[in-house]
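REQUEST ID: PR-0412
SUBMITTED BY: lab tech R.K.
PRIORITY: routine
TASK: structure prediction, single protein chain
INPUT:
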Amino acid sequence: MWVCNIPVMRTDKSKEGKAFGGWMTSLAGVLCKQSDVKLAICYPQNWTKRTEKENRNEIIFYGFYVPDRCQSDKTVYPALKDIEKRFKPDLIHVFGTEFPHSLEALKLDPDRTLVDIQGLIGVYAEHYFLRIPASLTVPGVNRLTGKHISPIYENMLALKKRGVYEKSALKRARYVTGRTEWDLACMRYINPKAEYYACNRILRESFYGHEWKYNNVRKHSILISQADYPVKGFHIFLKALHLLRKKYSDIEVTVAGRQLNLSDPPKGTYDAYIREQIRRYHLEGMIHFTGLLDEREMCEQYLKTNVFVLPSLIENSPNSLGEAMIMGVPCVASNVGGNNNMLLHGVEGYLYQADAEYMLAYYLEEIFERQSAVEELSRNAKIRAEKTHDKKKNAQILLDIYRDIIRKNER
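STATUS: complete
OUTPUT:
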């Protein structure tokens, strides 16, 4: 019984399904080929107060009602308990701890529950304000919006509040799976008694079937997968772009993720700050925001870009970096969280100090200027990612983890 954060494989029910969670769809497809696996996928929904059930492609889907995914609600545990009674799982797999319903799922039966660390928002909150002007991060009159409380500050507090539920969930966990030294270190200080299993991700299916070619890309083009809140580090990337624009006046930056229309009023303080920076550095004509892209559209963007940039202030093991690497797209990523467990600096791509925009600019220039070195980085990245994201190997590791936990409960 999987408990997820979004309606996995239900793109008809949620716009999020278009752009997020596709790796879980790939994992479910591999697992369901096993004759001894029967899978139920549970997800929060707010379009009906009853638990909805549907069978599709040999998987049972349960949508349990949650009025607001970010808020704790007393109806969630009874709904999950009812699903558990109906499905009678041997094991419960909770994907992510970012939302309060994960804590309710842990209450069902911690001895038969595996917690999958995606990100850790309580930790992310501690990195939220890196290189953001202090005037935008503290309570008071915000200089960009004129409002009394800075939305950036409020958003950070919201993460911290959800982080309290997250920490409670992780302290209940008996079994945890992760992928990096970063999530292992975090778990050591949150719940050192939990048994930790290492298991890498399976990526979305499309990214296994394509290969980036230097001669097929638009030179001096940059792709970024998300930029809509401070943790993604877009404000630092803009400073690097400013350093490069005089030498490369033809730079084109494509930003996927949620749409930002520079002609519309800002939706919050960070949005306003990004707009201010773009105008200050005269970058308007260089940046194109695509809005949410599905798997096929994202794949097309990777293949025609000169370099993929991941400027995040904190990450665990970003799937976007794995997707770029497995196709051989040259990558420059901030050296935060688990990024250095995915990419070897100078061999498979480049890592830079997250708040050092001059180093990001330097490595982008290296990629723009050195074709032979870039093609070697591309080959090495692809080889590394094919091992990291091997579908059969990772699915087998996860099945072995499931069986180990089940055996421990049979003793």
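NOTES: The longest strand covers residues 39-45.
REVIEWED BY: pending
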